[in-house]
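Our preliminary data section would be incomplete without showing what the modeling component actually yields. Below, a chain of 92 amino acids is followed by its predicted structure, encoded as tokens that our downstream tools consume directly.
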Amino acid sequence: MKVFFHPRGAMSHYLPLGQYTIELKNSATLADFYNELGLQMGDKLSPTIWNAEKKQFRAPVFIKLGKKILRKDSEPLHDCDNLALCMFVTGG
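Predicted structure:
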């Protein structure tokens, strides 16, 4: 199945294209998405945001599916889901 993701906010600085596609197995979860993101794009992600050894983002990120924030790695994904990839930004 295919899942589309769109970098939002500060994340779009590191991922300049408007949309990316990740191929996943059927019945994939959010954890599968993060793992496959590392496999398919890890070498293209800036080490500023991506820890290649741990296959995870260095800073907290969150994924939105429509108006819902996906909080658990066990959240199911579906074919053609459009995910928004966002990074927490602090400051004043």
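The beta strands are 2-7, 20-23, 50-51, 56-57, 61-65, 68-70, 82-87. The chain is about 15% helix and 30% strand. Preliminary results of this kind motivate Aim 1 of the renewal.
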